[in-house]
Every structure is written in C-alpha cells, then in structure tokens.
Specification:
- By secondary structure, the protein is of the alpha/beta class.
- The protein has 2 domains: about 100 residues, Ubiquitin-like (UB roll) (Roll), CATH 3.10.20; about 130 residues, Cytidine Deaminase, domain 2, CATH 3.40.140.
- Helices cover about 20% and strands about 35% of the residues.
- The protein has 6 helices and 15 strands.
- A 6-stranded mixed beta sheet has the order 10-9-11-12-13-14, with helices on both faces.
- A hairpin with a 2-residue loop joins strand 13 and strand 14.
Amino acid sequence: MLVDASTPVRVIKFRSETDEVANLQDSVATEEPLEIRLSYDDGSSRQVQNVAVTMRTPGHDNELAVGFLYTEGIIQNAADVLSAEHCFIACSENRENVIQVDMSEGIMPNLQKSERNFYTTSSCGVCGKSSINAIRTVSSYTDLADSDYVSADILYSLPEKLLAHQAVFASTGGLHASALFSLSGELLIVREDVGRHNALDKLIGASLLMNDLPLTQKLLLLSGRISFELVQKAAMAGIRIIAAIGAPSSLAIQLAQEFNITLVGFLRQQRLNIYSAEHRISIS
C-alpha cells in the first residue's frame, strides 16, 4: 500500500457551462524526492555512495531502489542485496526520503554500468544519460525459450482490471501504473507512481525481491504511453509482451523489435495496435 500517495489541497473549480464556482478540498498525487544510497565493501572498508535522486510517489521505496539498481545493471540478482531500508540511523533529516541498499558481502556493484547523473525527474527516467548507447543495457534473458502467447480478448479485458485496482489514481487522476498479468489475464502485481519509470522499477524490484525473475509467461500493462526506457527495463526483466493504453515512441518500437518484444499500444475499447512481434497475439 502506498504511503502518503495523495496530498490534500484547496482548489477552485470553475464550470463555464453553468458559471459555477466552487472552493473545495481536493487530492493530488504526492511527489517527493528519494535519494538512493548504495553501501558495499570495496575490499578495505565499507563504502556508502549516493547513486541517484528521483522524484517519486512515496511507498514501496525499497522495491523502487532495488528495481532501479537492477534495471540500470548495477546489481545482478536478489542475492546481491543484503537489505534495502530507509536511512533512519545515519540520516538526521528527511529520513523517509533516503533509502540505503546494502550489498551482500563480497559483492561489488557495477557502478560503471550507469552513466546517469544523480538527479532524474519523475517524467523522464533517461535524463542524465550521456548517450543513447549507454542505456542499451543488455538483458540476461534474451536467449530463453519463447512460449509466451496471449489472445486479443485477454488483452481487451486488462485496462478495466487495472483501473479497478488504482485507488490513488481514482482520487487524484495523477499517477501512472505498471501492472503484471498472467497470460490468462490474472492480475499479479500493480505499482503506481507519478513517474512511469518509477512505477515499473517498483514492479520489477518487487519481482526481484521475490526471486520471480525472469518474468516470462507474464505480460506487462502500462497505463500511459510507452517510452524507450520502459521497453529497456522490461527487457532487463525478461518480459516479452508489453501492452499500453497509450502510444509508443519510435525508439520504443525500435528497441522492442531489437529484443523481439511484442509491443501493443492504444489498448482501449476493444481495439489495439501491434507494433512488433505480432506472432505472440492470437486475434481470433
């Protein structure tokens, strides 16, 4: 469950058709910074390094941190992580907005894998990358047996199932969601955040901590548009079918084609567009 996912605000609502003016209390999605710190043994002493600051909706912060480190290629699996907790002891201020991931003994993080600057916005998880080649992180799961198939009828049913589990979105209208479904349409995990890349990192982080990677025989549903980075993160987790209510970008389609990922956009009102690897979807 999200913590402080919505914030009450005063708002003046105006409706031109009736000239009605109302001064009300409303709810908006909470956005706060999260600093991700990494603690590891370099062979001589324990080091603590600030890895990133991302603007996020509070809640599932340990999953966000672990998912971010995994999709950036900094950690390889759940065994690399000893713990991921808010920094309550070493931090005197804003402790709830600082999370420290402690690496297991003998595990060195691949910090050279990430060329991200220490700040990313909630809307663009790629900001700070030095070049597009730096974010073409290679997935460990590209050579697995491919037997993921889903019917169009199952896909048509997913947006309504997702919306029924977006309680905070219902009250604020301001959160993105990433949802993991079985190929039969069973909802498995939902994560929400003001940042679409954060929502997916939370979902992948939760799966990693449950030792559920790779996410084969499952499909990913995104509540908005499909960006390049979301396809890259899905590829890192072994996801082969991505569907979204919104549109894909040109680079998202290009990367999906490179990784042989089925990419579906504009999934709404019994309609869908297939942009790559259409062999995994049964239309009839």
